[in-house]
Amino acid sequence: MAKRGLFQSIFGKKPSSEGSNLPAYRLLSSYDSSFTPFSGNAWELGTFRAAVDAYARNAAKVHPRHIRRTDGRRDNMEDNIDRILQRRPNPYMTAAAFYYRVAAQYVTYNNAFILPVFDKGELVAIYPINASRVDLVEYMGVMYARLTFATGSVYTCRYDQIVHLRRHYLDNDIFGDDNRPLAPTLETASSFNQSMSKFAKLVAVIRGILKSQGVTKAEDLNKRRDDFVRDNLRMENNGSGVVVVDGKYDYTPINEKTVPIPQGQLDFVKKEIYDYVGVSEPIVQNKATPEDMDAFYTGGLVPLYDQLAQGLTNAIFSEREQAFGHEIICAQNRLKFATLTARMEAAQFLTNIGALELDQVLDVFDFAPVGGEEGKRRVQSLNMASVGIVDKYQLDSAQKKDGGETSEPETKPEPKPEEEPKEKEE
Q: Partners of 239 in the beta sheet?
């Protein structure tokens, strides 16, 4: 039985060195047409990893949908594409895990790649691509992407077949910029962690202070320290637990061994990393207010969702399909993650204007749908009136004010029932 690995499962063929002889695709801003994911030692720092995790776990709440816009309407297609985007992007990941990884790569490497896989023209899976190197190569005047993985496996495909998400996109023509501006902060954080670790070990070793009353030579102090430790602080030599010193020395034990932390330096490192990733401390610690979450959603997540929606639309649908209104939209169901008070206010407003069906109202509060015609019934407050009734009321009021008579609403004659076509007599 032939062995299949993850590479063959995703790309449908065995690893090869195809595309290795193709010339590099020449760019305008750089002689280097390649991208290598590198974050320095950022991912090894707990503060940076916590910031990335906070961003990615919130971004993973995205709810992509396949829609079609026709005649001013927006219809949810609810087809196989929706199932892939919302529940199972590929056989190895849930939707939450997929979007978490994409978002984590997006903020860590400033680049993220997604590969849609088709079978006979139908979308069957989407994969996040974590290549160790991406080279842009040219074949017959078309730009291709050569993906090299950590195992040495290589896959080459047209660049426009993949979804490429970019952040800090300024210097390079194709790829997002590196994390060079964060390097000084990462170096400071690394030095800070190492110094605090060494200081904590030193504090744990020191048991007390032996103070000399007079001036003593260094070698005499060292000998007296060693004698004091041997005679008093070792169990085999001091079974009684009583410490004895003469008048020449004072011994002060250190009982509280707390490590002083320079809070100012720690706050500086945190703020620099959080600002760079695009999160705040309340977001990281799950203490954010609704206002904090709204600001984070608008400024931090919407730019990612816009790129994701446009990239998936271009990769999944042809230009003809897009011309017929097919597209992917990405947004969160923000009511599901809002507070109970916010959900109640939103539901009350939307039902007042008749914008929600009964099942949609129940879904806001995670209740089971009623289903059937009753579930599709639109809920509306009696305090609200339709536009036609309001216009007629205002028209009648104006006519009364002018001394005219109120006009009766025109009634259209009921249409006669259509007669069934008579069969021709033979």
A: none
Question: How far apart, in whole angstroms, are the C-alpha atoms of residue 185 and residue 204?
Answer: 28
Question: What is the model's pTM?
Answer: 0.75
Contact indicator for 110, 42 with CB cutoff of 8 Å: no
At 318-368, the pLDDT tens digits run: 999 999 999 999 988 766 667 778 888 888 888 888 888 888 888 888 888
Adjacency order of strands within the sheet including 122-129: 122-129, 111-119, 163-166
> Residue 126's closest CA among 357, 401, 313?
313
Q: Dihedral of the CA atoms 388, 390, 394, 400 (nearest 10)?
A: 90
Longest dimension (CA), the chain: 139
Distance of CA 336 to the CA centre of its chain: 17
What the block records as the tokens of 98 is 């997929």
Handedness of CA 224, 225, 230, 234 (dihedral sign): positive
Choice between 286 and 244, residue whose per-residue pLDDT is larger: 286
C-alpha to C-alpha distance for 264 and 257, rounded to whole angstroms: 21
